[in-house]
User: What shape does this take?
Amino acid sequence: MRVKDLHLLPKFRDALTYLYVEHCRVEQDDRAIALWQAQGKTPVPCASLSLLMLGPGTSITHAAVATLADNGCLVLWCGEEGVRLYAHGLGLTRSAAYLLHQARLWANPRTRLQVVLRLYRMRFEEPLPDTLTLKQIRGKEGVRVREAYARASRETGVPWHGRAYRRDSWQAADPVNRALSAANSCLYGICHAAILALGLSPALGFIHTGKMLSFVYDVADLYKTRLSIPLAFRETAAGLQNLESRVRQACRDEFRRIFFLKTIIQDLQALLDLEALADSEDWEKYHQDEALPGGLWDPEEMETVAGGQNFAPDREEET
Amino acid sequence: MVVLILEKVPTSLRGELSRWFLEPKTGVFVGKVSALVRDLLWDKVCRGKGQGAALMIYNSNREQGFDIRSHGETSRQVVDFEGLLLIRIPQ
Assistant: This one.
């Protein structure tokens, strides 16, 4: 049975944040979704879940994917604890309101600059004076990152000669740089998941530009000095045996410990003012009627023109 | 609100619990008691369950809005997925 009334679905902020599973079969079970493991089956309340993350060792049936999509639960295939992102399904929202909002903010230089400044301000613990130019803020940000590296180096005793890596040769970098690259790739995976979960575009970056994951880099930069830098230095100080794999595991444990996915989603909502949008008319409209045709854009009309109509003039008017 | 689900416990325990709770179905108790009384009653259940088992579900400020405690060999197990509580049904 397809879900008819989308009002039955909890809104994103009411929904449970995420469920991460590994080593199980995900199948349809009496019109619900259940995880099958050797110990038994675990039904999943998929209509009140916003994100199902499938880790290593999972398999999923077509019927289960259809039910999850119907209930607006985004499915992501990822590495352990979301440290990589391989593929994704259909997200929660039938309304493109968030995505259009992001595109509007991105397309207008004035609003884009506001978001850029907000992204920078979110990284500083102390409030920045309003008089600073973007160039000055970039300078302050450079100092902040340099201090984070120096502090981590002081605390762990791992020598630091600057961020240096060669994209064509992983082993050419020194151990702490390899650890940093591994930690950052884990961070990109989970930020990518959060962006998709909200129905935003990973490509429309505000600070970064030009790549399919520009917005992922924007968001991940909020957390590098807090998460990946101290963690990479800590793991390097602990020894060089299986360094990259230990870093990935440490990332996973840390993400779980601080409920990181939830934090990113809350930060994204604050960054782009998404809370206000979820109550907007469009949002309600598409939630009430999933198959409602979208509007047609018109530069002269203030509102969109209704879709799903034939605008050909009547025959009598034709001459 | 507190919900207690008891399996195969002595009738004396069920009788005692009916002083605080309603029993809409055999072994299922519902009521509203303070956190302190709730914990004391849970201790009583754990001590007096004999060969049986017990589940207690009560309001809390977790993401799901409730918390689940279990004691003894309940027929279904509570599984914690990083803070999300689900129920596993043995096959």
Summary: Residues 35-48 of chain B form the longest helix (14 residues). The helical segments of chain B are 11-17, 35-48. The mean pLDDT of chain B is 93. Strands of chain B lie at 2-7, 22-25, 28-31, 53-59, 66-71, 77-81, 84-88.
